[in-house]
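Researcher: I'm comparing several assemblies side by side, and this is the next one on my list. It has 556 residues spread over four chains. Same procedure as the others: predict the full complex and return the structure.
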Amino acid sequence: MNERKLKVMEAAHSLFVKKGYAATSVQDILEKSSISKGTFYNYFPSKSELLMSIFDKINHETNKRRTEVLAGRPVHDKEVFIEQIKVKMEVNKENNLFVLFQGVFVSDDAELKKFVKQHHFNELCWTQRRLIEVFNDDVRPYSADLAITLYGVVQNTVHFLVAAEERVELDAIIRYALRRVETSVNDVIQTKDMLLDSRILERLQPEFALNREKKKSALMQKIGVMQESAGDEQRELLSFLQDELRSAAPRCRVIEAVLEGVAENKDLKALINGFLHE
Amino acid sequence: MNERKLKVMEAAHSLFVKKGYAATSVQDILEKSSISKGTFYNYFPSKSELLMSIFDKINHETNKRRTEVLAGRPVHDKEVFIEQIKVKMEVNKENNLFVLFQGVFVSDDAELKKFVKQHHFNELCWTQRRLIEVFNDDVRPYSADLAITLYGVVQNTVHFLVAAEERVELDAIIRYALRRVETSVNDVIQTKDMLLDSRILERLQPEFALNREKKKSALMQKIGVMQESAGDEQRELLSFLQDELRSAAPRCRVIEAVLEGVAENKDLKALINGFLHE
DNA sequence: TTCAATTTGGACTAGCAGTCTAAAAATAGA
DNA sequence: TCTATTTTTAGACTGCTAGTCCAAATTGAA
């Protein structure tokens, strides 16, 4: 991306964090980034499109950090899950997103609203998938409820503490929420207590991401299962496959080659082909 | 209050609900309520002060309805608690407060922000007090955590469903959240799992309301306990006392008179005196 | 040097919240 | 009914906003 454009985004970002979206005028951004109005509207069709670009950038970095956290560790590792949630909340806090997101809802900008809404759905859907990965498949029917519960408790607690100007101990908060959810897991499975259809979140996903993420999840689970009953060198191969498949641009040839070294790879091969080639 | 001023508030209210706070201009309000700009700024110092007046009015009505729900029923009745939460959420939904409250945070108006924040704290504090009343005093050390959890789950679920344009079954949501909290109650008491100091919410209350609400709560609990081990006519007297003390302007003479008919009334008399006469 | 793309600064539009004023209208008191 | 006071009115006005437009200046590459 244009280096100049990036400079504008950074200037705007810091101003939004400091003063909030509405209180930051385009004029402020022009002065801070030393460009002219004409150039600004060359780069961004509007102030709200600029904000969306910034959201996109932040989100991209968040996802990258989340992937790094998971690298080389099993998907059912609770500590990984905790760290991944923490990544998001840290980013939210650093970027004052609690306030920024809210600022969006007041604007009349329908696109912007839709954008932020979709973001929220995606996060819930991610949480749901991870819950199924961390606990096991028994939790699936209740996973939408639990995702909303987990997200709600963490979000609400952080939000409250920020508003109250108290110290925010992210780690403690996330662990607390997860302990409550863990109890709820047993609870809802035993009593078959369900509020929302577990597929409600998938339905709200854009089609493409939905299929892709579903396949990815199935793959990771499959590999996870295989890892458990595998020897050391087999586990290394499987672990490598997980990492490679998770990356933004998986190297197909490498994966195919490694796949040859994996025992009982018929099902796996089919799944991976389905994932890699649409 | 001035009938004309009320008309303006109603016009503004409906516009805010329909179009949102930011998207409604003062001009719109003037046209809808057929007054002039001069009159508007006679009534309200600013657009945001108008919004606060509306919030105040809504809140007042909410509290009134909540009091009515409780009338003649014991404070530990779970159904009462559910209905009371429902009142708030219904009001929020009817008045589109999810959007309105958010709209506030974008404005640069520090007063308005503080106002909404305090509102949120008050609601959490109310939830906390009610949790102690509904479950019992053992829950007190964990009551702030549980209040935030309960509020977080309900709020988040409703908010999600509204965003997803799905049906919102308030009753089912609240009952679900309360079942989760109920399990959590046993859980945290057993494991002594505490996140936040239970007094954190009280500390955020304005001094006056704090003391008053504390005394009120103690009174209600005391009366509740007495009711359990009382005969029918005694229970009727105690029930009346609860209602009267809960009202906006308790009639002191009536209370004193009724108090004479209550057995073992020394402690109760002291508490009521403390409550009524500051 | 030439040519095309980019950048510039500022004029401009339309709309916003809020202020102010002089005149009109409503209200109350005698 | 007349008078004095208060309230209401319409609109001009300030200073701000986002976004459009354009001729002129600058830049980079061939």
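Model: For your comparison table: Residues 35-39, 42 of chain B lie near DNA strand D (CB under 10 Å from a C1').
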